[in-house]
Amino acid sequence: MSEHQRLVQETGKKLENNVCKILNAVLNKKDIHAFNVSEIKRWADKNHRMNKLIEYVKVSVKNPCLQEPITTLPDTDILVMYKQEDVVSGLINWHALCIVSCKTSFHGRDTEALFWAMLAKPSKINYVMVTEDSDRYSDRPGKRKTELGTCDKANRTRRLLESFLDRVYVIKKYDVENNDIIEDVGKFYPLFEKAEASAYRGLQSKVFDDSGREPHAGYCQMIRPFDDLLYDIMRWKFEKLG
What we know:
Elements: H1 3-27, E1 32-36, H2 37-44, H3 48-57, E2 59-63, E3 68-72, E4 78-85, E5 92-103, H4 110-120, E6 126-131, H5 156-164, E7 167-170, H6 181-195, E8 223-225, H7 227-241
Parallel strand pairs: 5-6, 6-7, 7-8
Antiparallel strand pairs: 1-4, 2-3, 4-5
Helix pairs in contact: 1-6, 2-3, 4-5
């Protein structure tokens, strides 16, 4: 593995860990949990019900060499699910709420997530992306930019993401300018608690994104601050419970 590949892998893993940390810090009290794929696979080996959920999340593709369909997990960095106890048996059932693909940047790789999002459509699980849009943090002269363009002057990447994903959420880069996850969770949680009264709709908080940092992609119906993912997950849970 080259030094560049190692660095890309490390920064991607750091973003994934940051997203998981925020989701679990805010949502665990609501019986909602975020797991990365390696955690889920280890758990599924020991838990029949979790293994059943994993099989449901997998997508089916036809393999021409084998002349038969095969199943595989989509491009899943994080799976968010809620647990529900069966009042009769006391057993815990897990229900998938969304698949989260994490991208620090795109650099021409945006279509990977779109491919898997389309394959995952039949499962009726929301497929979303979280990105730092990290080129906006570049220290290189003339290289500081947003890969998403803006709503008024959108580029190809933005239009494809808007068309094929359920939503894209922009999160700040947490190793820049002393940004601290624990501090931001503390700022956000009181807003989150109050949001229940409005069914988690119509909220404008931007705690987890550098919304004032230029350049910025700007928000629209499909491109949202990371805060909205937490509100959206709660609404998706209520919709599942019906």
